[in-house]
Structures are given as C-alpha cells and as structure tokens.
Amino acid sequence: MKVLLAVVKRLHRPAVCYSTRRALSSSAGSGGLLAAEETDTAVVVASSQELLQRIGSQVEVRTGFISEKEEEAFLREVELGLKKKRYQFDHWDDAIHGYRETERLSWGAECEEVLTRVRSTAFAEGSPLLGPVHVLDLDKTGYIKPHIDSVKFCGTTIAGLSLLSDSIMRLVKENSSSEWLDMLLPRRSLYILRDQARYDFTHEILKDEESVFNGQKVPRQRRIAIICRNLPG
After folding, report:
1. What single DSSP character describes residue 174?
2. pLDDT for position 151
3. Would the pTM count as exceeding 0.85?
4. Phi first, then psi: what are they for 120, rounded to 5°?
5. Cα–Cα distances in Å, from 73 out to 68, 139, 204?
C-alpha cells in the first residue's frame, strides 16, 4: 500500500535562526530554545523562537541512533529488492523525484531489534502501527517535494532512519510560508515528527544543490529512509 501524499508547494524565505541539539525536548530553563542532551551539534533551526516553543517538543532528531553495523544490516536486507527496481522521476502524485521504494513486513533479527527500538522511542505504548515498514531510496539527484502525508493512512507520528547520507528535512507551515523549520538529519540518525508538526506543516527532503543547513553546505548523496508510521486514530 502506497502512502497517499498531498503536495503543497511553498516558497522558503530564510529568517532568524535558532539552533537546537540532539534529542529535542522542551525546557523551561532553556530560554525558549530546546534542551540539549549530549552534544553541541545543532540539528534544528527555525524561523523564530516562538515557533520552537510551540512545536519544538513535536520534532526530534536523535543522532547516532544506529551503528555502522546496524546500518549495514539494513542495507543487506533492502538492497537486493531495490536493485530490481528503476529510479522513477515522475511520482504518481508529483511528490517525489528520483526514487525507488518498497515495503517490508518481515526483517532479520538484527533489523527487527532496531525497529523495536525505533517504535519504543517514537510511539506511545499501545499505539497501533502501520504494518509494513516503508523503504524509500532517493537517488543522489532525487528529492522529496513539500507534502503532508495523507491522514487517511497515517496517524499522528512518523519516524524514520536515515541511511547512507546526511540530508536536510524542511518543514513549512501550510498556510504561512514565513514559519519554517530545518532539521539536519545526519547519516544513521532517527527523526520523529508528531502532532502539529505532522499535520500542519509540509515536509520535504532538499535536493543536493539546495542542501544548506544554517548557512553550511550539507552534501547529499544517495539516501535510504526506513520509515515507520502509526495508524489513524
């Protein structure tokens, strides 16, 4: 089952940036920014401090969530099936350019252990999950256009592992392009979108020539995402 996507194009105009760090959470003592867990690496910048206060607890980037060995395990499992497919450059609803995709219900023990970790980290206990795990392979020249995943098939939370490459995910308020948030997704990180960040903001993966985070170029290579979603309530 393919996830239906509603494409919403937006003009992105950079504004004042506020940085956040690693696994993000709200903190009364952080002066309105999000609290850091372990690293000084900025992983989120936004158009305003007010936006971070409003939806900061609903976006999360956990760097180094999987090891090199675990990444290799996922690649071994998905590469054979992906190699049988050609990259497509005309997605059926114009949401993705330069991609291959598949879905998997069953995984080897090492990957299943990681997916259990993803689910326990990203989803509330007892939350019904979409059965198949979505595997999305973006060519180096590929990108994902601004869209909101259909509420018909997806619930409140999306969580994805980033394999093979760093990338930038951009969120833009659906009815207000001046409100935006950029997430740096390092290779082997986990990202999570919840609630308002999931429903009210488009999200996209920037193409290589636009892949700039807080003024710094972030080279985009081929990228594979392993994506879990919960079911609609």
Report:
1. T
2. 75
3. no
4. -70, -25
5. 9, 20, 26
